[in-house]
Write a structure and sequence with these properties.
The protein is built from 11 helices and 6 strands. The protein has 222 residues and is of the alpha/beta class. The protein has 2 domains: 141 residues, Rossmann fold; 60 residues, 5' to 3' exonuclease, C-terminal subdomain (DNA polymerase, domain 1), CATH 1.10.150. Helix 1 links the parallel strand 1 and strand 2. Helix 7 crosses helix 8. The radius of gyration is 28 Å and the shape is elongated.
Length: 222
């Protein structure tokens, strides 16, 4: 199943339909929920459906005022595993109307946290069209979350040593290197007395005492 973009017929005057038709398979119809629906199988053969609600900044503010936005987001969340809200425009959202800035911030926070709907921003209808095209093309690719996050390479011995020392109270990355340069091994560091510890740059009496307390105090289960 190739990826298809369904477009609500009310978008006919936005200019987006013509832009999307250049590089995508589209279908114009009356959509009950969302302005755009991207559907198809991804590169792993899994069926995917993405629902996108598009709002100009003016319409975004209007929909907050008349409370349309809440019902639209609820419907988007209920009907699509992957809902997206696109806010389009270059105007300063906080200066367009006599909204208190915190009312706008509160709604944006609610969209992200309560509804868990990603908010993407575009400059104009062409930018919106390009973004929707990119999302559609991304749908066709196999999921490679691990490659996006880049699997972390195992720590080298040097990094492991620095990490262990850096975990002590008041010791960060820089001081851990100073300690290892001075004591050479973790064992030597752990066997050092307060006098030896204080000789290391940036280790004062208080830091030395905290290190020794951690090393010497008996573990208590309760």
């Amino acid at each position: 199943m190739s990826v298809k973009i369904l477009i609500d017929h009310r978008e006919k005057n936005s200019g987006i339909i013509e832009e999307l038709a250049k590089d995508n398979e589209i279908e114009i119809k009356q959509l009950i929920t969302a302005d755009f629906i991207i559907e198809g199988n991804n590169g792993n053969g899994e069926k995917q459906v993405i629902g996108i609600e598009r709002k100009t900044k003016e319409d975004f503010l209007n929909s907050i005022a008349d409370k349309r936005l809440i019902s639209q987001l609820s419907s988007l969340r209920e009907n699509f595993k992957h809902p997206i809200l696109i806010i389009e425009g270059t105007e300063n959202l906080y200066r367009m109307r006599d909204f208190h800035p915190n009312a706008i911030r509160g709604m944006l926070a609610s969209i992200a946290i309560d509804f868990q709907v990603p908010v993407l921003h575009t400059r104009n209808y062409r930018d919106t069209s390009k973004l929707i095209s990119v999302i559609a093309k991304r749908l066709e690719k196999p999921k490679k979350l691990s490659s996006l996050l880049l699997q972390r390479k195992p720590l080298t011995l040097k990094e492991q040593q620095e990490s262990i020392i850096a975990s002590f109270p008041g010791i960060g990355s820089e001081i851990s290197k100073n300690l290892l340069k001075n004591f050479k091994t973790i064992k030597n560091f752990m066997n050092a007395d307060i006098k030896k510890l204080k000789e290391v740059e940036k280790i004062g009496k208080k830091k030395a005492q905290k290190i020794l307390e951690l090393l010497e105090k008996e573990y208590q289960e309760i």
